[in-house]
Design brief:
single chain, mainly beta, 8-stranded antiparallel sheet, 4-stranded mixed sheet
C-alpha cells in the first residue's frame, strides 16, 4: 500500500475481500455526496461557516471512479470508510495531508498544515476506487460561534485565504466591525492577518475641526570691518592686501555690502555700511564698516474643517506646490510638484457611546532658502517641515492639543585676522561678528464631532447680505459696499461680534 508517497503492501489476509469490489464500488459516488460531516456541520444563525467533514462513509452501489472535494480542519482528521478492501492509498502532499491505514476498509486522513492535497484510493489490480480533492483550512467553527454570541444581529461570513481570514457580510455599526476584526486577529494569533470587508448598515460621519497656530521670532545682528583694499609701497616693492569677512550665518538672508570705489558709499541691502579711505602718495587703505540689526515676528493660523465617514480618510491642504525638475534620459527634464503649506489628514472610526478613534497627521511646511541647492542656472529651494502624527481616542466635542513643538536655534560666529582680531580695542577693526536666533512654537488643536444633517434654512453663505455700493457714495465717502456679512442675531445668549467678516482695516462698509 502506498501511504504518503511510500508504497506499503497489504498482508495477504487483508486482500481476501477484493472479489466483491466491483459491486461495492457502484455505491461509492452517491455516498460521497452524503458524507457525514459531524464537525462544524451545524448551521449558524446569522453567521456562515464552512463545513469541515470528519467522517466519509461510502455505501455500496456507487459506480466508479468517484471524485469528490472535501474540507478538513487544520490539526483535525477525517475517517474514510469503504465497504470494500483497498490495496493502495496515495497522498500527493505529505506536508499538508497524511494517511494512516487502520484496516483495509478504514483510512484516517490527518490534516497537518494549511494547503491543498489529493488522496487516491486504489483497489485490486490498480482499480480506481475514489479520488478526494482535500482542502486543509483552519476550522473557524469556534470563531463563528463566538461572533454569533458576542455580536448578535450580525451577518458575518468568515473564510480562510492562505493564512489570512477574510470577513464579509454586514454588521449593525462600525464598532461591531472593529470588534469582529479584533476577534478574528486574536483567534488566528495574527492581528495583521485579517481582511475586513464587513459592510456597516448605519454609517457615522465625523467632522474634524483643526486649528494650527504658529509663532516665529527671528533676530539678526551683524557688525564688522572689512579691508577690501590696501596698497603699500616701500622702495621698489609693492604690497597689496585684501581682508574680507563673509558673514556666513546671515548672508543667505541679508547679502553682504558690496564695495564700489574709494570715496563712494558701498551698496548695502540692509543696515548701514561706511567706506572710509586713507591715502598718501602711492599708499592707500580702504576699510568698510558694516552694521545690521533686525528682529521680526511671524504669525500663522489656519482653521480647516473636514468631514469623513467612519473608517474613511480625508485630507486638507492650505498652501501650494512648487516645481522640482527631474532629469530624464536623452537630456530631457520633467517637472515634479512638491506640496507645502498646512496639510492635515485624518481617519476616524466611531466607537461605542459617542467615542471616536482618530488617526491624525498634521504637517506645516514652508519654502526656505536654508537647504537650497544650486544647479547651474537652477536653484531648488529647501523645505522646512514640522510634522505630527498620532492615534488617539476621545469623545465627540473634546479637544486635543498637540503642543510642545518648540524650536530654538541660535548661531554665532566671529571671523577676522589671526592675532590682530584679539587685540584690545583695536581688534574690533580686524574682526566681524555674526549672530542669528530663531524661535518657533507650533500648536495644533484637534476637535472631532459626530456630524448630522442640517436643513438649508440653518446654513448661510458668505455672499448672503452682500450689496454693492453706488458710484456717488463710493466716490465721496470711499465705501465699497453697502452691506456685507450675515448680521442675523444668533439664537441663545451670545456675546461678541458675529458675521463672516467683522472688521477689515482700511475698508469702510
Amino acid at each position: 500500500m502506498m501511504v504518503s508517497g511510500r508504497r506499503v503492501r497489504l498482508r495477504p489476509a487483508l486482500q481476501s475481500g477484493f472479489s466483491g469490489l466491483a459491486a461495492l464500488l457502484c455505491a461509492m459516488a452517491a455516498a460521497c455526496g452524503h458524507a457525514d460531516a459531524r464537525d462544524g456541520a451545524a448551521p449558524y444563525k446569522g453567521v456562515h461557516a464552512v463545513n469541515h467533514q470528519s467522517s466519509i462513509k461510502l455505501p455500496a452501489g456507487t459506480p466508479l471512479p468517484v471524485t469528490r472535494r472535501v474540507t478538513i480542519g487544520l490539526n483535525k482528521s477525517a475517517l474514510v470508510e469503504v465497504p470494500v478492501d483497498l490495496q493502495n492509498v496515495l497522498v500527493s502532499n505529505p506536508d499538508v495531508l497524511d494517511a494512516v491505514v487502520q484496516t483495509t476498509r478504514q483510512v484516517y486522513l490527518l490534516a497537518k498544515d494549511v494547503g491543498e492535497a489529493n488522496a487516491f484510493f486504489m483497489g485490486h489490480d490498480g482499480t480506481k476506487v475514489m479520488l478526494l480533492e482535500v482542502s486543509v483550512v483552519r476550522d473557524l467553527s469556534v470563531l463563528h460561534d463566538m461572533l454569533e454570541r458576542l455580536l448578535p444581529g450580525s451577518n458575518i461570513h468568515a473564510e480562510m485565504m492562505g493564512d489570512t481570514v477574510v470577513l464579509s457580510g454586514s454588521v449593525n455599526n462600525p464598532v461591531d466591525a472593529n470588534r469582529a476584526s479584533e476577534l478574528a486577529g486574536r483567534f488566528i494569533k495574527k492581528p495583521d492577518g485579517v481582511v475586513n470587508m464587513l459592510d456597516t448598515r448605519s454609517k457615522e460621519q465625523v467632522l474634524l475641526k483643526v486649528q494650527v497656530a504658529e509663532m516665529q521670532r527671528d533676530a539678526l545682528k551683524r557688525i564688522g570691518v572689512d579691508l577690501p583694499g590696501a596698497v603699500l609701497q616701500s622702495g621698489n616693492f609693492t604690497f597689496a592686501k585684501v581682508i574680507q569677512n563673509a558673514f556666513p550665518i546671515t548672508s543667505p538672508l541679508v547679502p553682504k555690502a558690496i564695495p564700489l570705489a574709494p570715496d563712494i558709499s558701498p551698496l548695502a541691502s540692509g543696515g548701514v555700511a561706511l567706506q572710509p579711505t586713507w591715502a598718501t602718495k602711492n599708499q592707500s587703505v580702504t576699510a568698510m564698516i558694516e552694521a545690521l540689526e533686525r528682529a521680526g515676528v511671524l504669525k500663522t493660523l489656519a482653521e480647516p474643517t473636514l468631514t469623513a465617514m467612519s473608517g474613511e480618510s480625508a485630507k486638507f491642504l492650505a498652501g501650494g506646490e512648487f516645481p522640482v525638475p527631474i532629469a530624464q534620459q536623452n537630456n530631457s527634464v520633467t517637472v515634479e510638484w512638491k506640496q507645502f503649506g498646512i496639510n492635515v489628514a485624518f481617519t476616524p472610526v466611531v466607537l461605542s457611546e459617542g467615542r471616536i478613534s482618530l488617526k491624525i497627521s498634521a504637517e506645516v511646511s514652508e519654502i526656505s532658502p536654508d537647504g537650497s541647492v544650486n544647479l547651474s542656472s537652477i536653484t531648488l529651494p529647501g523645505l522646512k517641515v514640522r510634522r505630527a502624527e498620532t492615534t488617539l481616542e476621545l469623545p465627540s466635542g473634546a479637544t486635543l492639543a498637540m503642543a510642545g513643538l518648540l524650536s530654538d536655534e541660535t548661531r554665532q560666529s566671529a571671523e577676522g585676522v589671526p592675532a590682530l582680531k584679539d587685540l584690545p580695542v583695536l581688534g574690533a577693526l580686524f574682526r566681524s561678528t555674526d549672530y542669528r536666533r530663531r524661535e518657533t512654537e507650533l500648536v495644533i488643536l484637534v476637535t472631532p464631532y459626530l456630524a448630522t444633517h442640517a436643513t438649508s434654512r440653518e446654513l448661510a453663505r458668505p455672499t448672503d447680505g452682500y450689496a454693492p455700493e453706488n458710484a456717488l457714495r463710493e466716490l465721496f465717502f470711499g465705501n465699497i459696499n453697502r452691506v456685507y456679512g450675515n448680521r442675523t442675531v444668533p439664537s441663545g445668549h451670545y456675546r461678541g461680534e458675529y458675521g463672516f467678516i467683522i472688521d477689515y482695516p482700511g475698508v469702510k462698509g
